[in-house]
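re: the backbone from monday

yeah here it is again, tokenized this time
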């Protein structure tokens, strides 16, 4: 493609023919009556509740209908949200005679019916085979009319279009069993008995995993409801592996060829340019359906928003930050990895201790390989081995913990586990701590990939981690499968583990170099993790992690509260975290009366008004102490319908071990750091570019949606968007930039690990919250 093609958003602006429109107004009474009103007038009216006047606004969709209630002519520009609802309702009415909706609320979601929307049927046809009734891979379409603001802060309507693939397996499980499919261990679903409306599909509900079966009855484990189920009443969960098993059952000799054809079609759909072409086709189809309001207001859908058009959002320039490393913290570098190798980590002369003890727990059968790996972790990957396999690039892990991170001495104490059970690991950790005279500075626990599916007392890693952390020792996991990786990958694995280990030893690998600010700034992140006590359907508790960062002398540093709370109490914990953090920073950095203070919250979900009010109360407390306080609440989310396309992006070359040749990834994907401000409260930040995509099959990544709460009184979105981008470079879990700011990433890691440790018998979180691990990066 030509290099001069501009960026494109999957939003088409709406042009409206008139300046005025007749609307009706009804008093709002209660929700049941409002729902009944919408159902009764489904085909003739669109409605919207106006909380400002406690009225139901309505507009007609057909020429022979009248608005309900008090009728009056009103300005179109003052009723854009009502017109957005009318556009959605008009599209819904057009579709429902032929299509069942998956979602018919504010966003319309449905499976396409045209042959090009049936991906498995196309793959089967390629091989001369008929479609399989009840088994399909559909294209799912999403349509959502929303309110936007252009760069001149003028409101307009836009229709957001998106597509994805969606599996269907509707054959009753009893039929699959009769045909010879083994379903033991697979999760099953049933359609809910009643759909939300007559034009929506009943929702799928996963009800359990099969432990045993015959053609009529299924016994379930990890179930929600009855553990004894009639096999004719349920279907397989439509996961990709189940779809392939069903396909193998029906076409055993042709499965691989059919699957290859299906995957080729699905890959094309998921690529940036393929998705863009499909979205443009959807837009062409919508344009063929005229949308007119009852009194003659007509709707025209424009082209997808393209850079340079009047409604395209404003570009926010971003740049990779500079980092500080070295003995005095004054060496400015562009790449932390190379900067640490050359200069040492940030202010390493102040790191204490420099002589450390590492405790290692591993299975007895893996002792030799662990010793080899730990030796390389301490001393570095041998240069002669690196040169024999890769002469083009510099060895990424020269010197090890001793050389790269400037530690003086590392002593290792091993303890073998008698087996791969939790009891054996716990016993090994206990024995190791009993037989050494000093508390280790770090523990390394050898794990297996299979441990990731185990919970609580059944997980050897968490049971041994609980033992070490109870005495204030942070723990680093090393997966035995990674040790067995290709020799060419070992230096990179060692490099990441060493980075996280040094941070857990309370070292600071690098910080961001920023200009000195006149405002004292406290930045807090909230992330959550949902922890199941057993299996996927076992009782789940949502934990919210809170982590705090602050800017001192213009430098962002990680500090103290690494807390986790249950979801119901996170607002109180946030307020307490802010209060404690502010007190710490105030005394540590010497705030003076009249100083400006800024509180910034990065949240995984939008805060409720009551929670915002609580933080406002803290701001008032500080104001009473003669500080000038401002605050900003930002929702940082992956859950949204927006995509940014760059048709001029040729992609990046990469080596594919499977194909044994160089391929191209990220065609049509924007570069990392591309940022647009959708309006004064919302921005899109692209954090996964062509370089960050792993393979050409990965598909088009979405940007982060960052939304500023309207009650915020610090409104500089350009500053806030750039700050979030800089925070994606601050993860000490990896040298690669993260796909989200560490405010959210660290918080979620805290919540996930502490939530899992709560399932371990006898676990006590006080060492993390109050003891020696407080304020340390034990969770990396």
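seq for it, each position gets an aa:
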């Amino acid at each position: 493609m030509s290099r001069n093609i501009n960026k494109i958003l999957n939003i088409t602006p709406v042009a409206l023919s008139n300046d005025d429109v007749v609307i009706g107004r009804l008093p709002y009474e209660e929700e049941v009556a409002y729902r009944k009103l919408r159902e009764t007038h489904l085909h003739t009216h669109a409605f919207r509740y106006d909380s400002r006047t406690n009225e139901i606004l309505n507009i007609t969709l057909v020429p022979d209908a009248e608005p309900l209630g008090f009728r009056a002519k009103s300005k179109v520009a003052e009723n854009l949200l009502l017109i957005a609802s009318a556009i959605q309702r008009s599209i819904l009415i057009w579709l429902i005679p032929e299509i069942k909706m998956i979602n018919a609320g504010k966003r319309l979601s449905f499976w396409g019916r045209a042959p090009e929307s049936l991906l498995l049927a196309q793959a089967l046809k390629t091989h001369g085979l008929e479609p399989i009734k009840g088994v399909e891979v559909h294209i799912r379409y999403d349509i959502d009319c929303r309110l936007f603001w252009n760069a001149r802060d003028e409101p307009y309507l836009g229709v957001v279009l998106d597509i994805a693939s969606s599996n269907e397996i509707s054959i009753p499980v009893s039929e699959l069993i009769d045909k010879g499919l083994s379903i033991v261990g697979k999760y099953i679903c049933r359609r809910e008995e009643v759909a939300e409306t007559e034009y929506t599909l009943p929702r799928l509900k996963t009800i359990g995993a099969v432990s045993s079966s015959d053609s009529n009855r299924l016994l379930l484990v990890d179930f929600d409801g009855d553990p004894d189920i009639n096999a004719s009443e349920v279907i397989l969960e439509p996961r990709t592996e189940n779809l392939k098993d069903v396909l193998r059952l029906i076409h055993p000799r042709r499965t691989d060829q059919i699957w290859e054809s299906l995957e080729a079609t699905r890959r094309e759909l998921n690529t940036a340019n393929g998705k863009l072409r499909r979205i443009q086709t959807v837009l062409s189809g919508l344009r063929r359906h005229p949308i007119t309001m009852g009194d003659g207001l007509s709707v025209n859908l424009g082209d997808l928003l393209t850079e340079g058009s009047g409604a395209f959002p404003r570009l926010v320039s971003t740049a990779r930050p500079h980092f500080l490393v070295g003995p005095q913290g004054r060496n400015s570098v562009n790449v932390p990895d190379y900067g640490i190798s050359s200069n040492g980590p940030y202010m390493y002369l102040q790191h204490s201790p420099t002589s450390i003890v590492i405790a290692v727990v591993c299975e007895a059968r893996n002792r030799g390989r662990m010793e080899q790996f730990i030796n390389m972790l301490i001393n570095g990957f041998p240069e002669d081995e690196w040169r024999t396999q890769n002469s083009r690039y510099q060895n990424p892990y020269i010197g090890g913990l001793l050389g790269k991170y400037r530690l003086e001495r590392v002593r290792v104490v091993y303890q073998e586990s008698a087996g791969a059970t939790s009891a054996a690991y716990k016993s090994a950790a206990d024995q190791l701590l009993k037989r050494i005279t000093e508390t280790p500075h770090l523990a390394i626990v050898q794990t297996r990939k299979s441990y990731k599916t185990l919970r609580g007392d059944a997980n050897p890693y968490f049971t041994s981690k609980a033992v070490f952390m109870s005495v204030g020792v942070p723990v680093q996991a090393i997966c035995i499968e990674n040790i067995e990786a290709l020799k060419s990958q070992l230096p990179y694995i060692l490099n990441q583990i060493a980075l996280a280990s040094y941070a857990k030893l309370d070292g600071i690998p690098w910080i961001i170099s920023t200009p000195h600010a006149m405002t004292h700034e406290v930045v807090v992140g909230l992330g959550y993790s949902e922890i199941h006590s057993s299996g996927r359907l076992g009782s789940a508790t949502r934990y919210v992690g809170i982590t705090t960062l602050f800017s001192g002398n213009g430098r962002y540093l990680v500090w103290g509260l690494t807390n986790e709370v249950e979801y119901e109490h996170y607002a109180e914990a946030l307020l307490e975290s802010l209060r404690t953090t502010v007190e710490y920073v105030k005394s540590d950095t010497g705030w003076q009366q009249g100083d400006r203070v800024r509180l910034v919250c990065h949240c995984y979900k939008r805060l409720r008004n009551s929670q915002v009010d609580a933080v406002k109360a803290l701001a008032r407390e500080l104001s009473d102490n003669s500080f000038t306080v401002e605050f900003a609440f930002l929702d940082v989310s992956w859950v949204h319908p927006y995509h940014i396309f760059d048709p001029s992006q040729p992609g990046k070359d990469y080596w594919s071990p499977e194909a044994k040749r160089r391929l191209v990834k990220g065609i049509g994907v924007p570069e990392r750091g591309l940022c647009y401000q959708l309006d004064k409260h919302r921005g899109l930040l692209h954090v996964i570019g062509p370089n960050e995509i792993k393979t050409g099959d990965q598909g088009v990544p979405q940007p982060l949606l960052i939304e500023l709460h309207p009650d915020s009184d610090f409104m500089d979105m350009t500053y806030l968007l750039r700050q979030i981008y800089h925070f994606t470079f601050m993860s000490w879990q990896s040298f690669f930039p993260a796909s989200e700011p560490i405010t959210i990433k660290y918080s979620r890691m805290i919540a996930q690990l502490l939530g899992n440790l709560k399932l371990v018998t006898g676990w006590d979180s006080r060492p993390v919250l109050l003891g020696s691990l407080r304020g340390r990066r034990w969770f990396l």
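The radius of gyration is 29 Å. The first strand starts at residue 8 and ends at 9.
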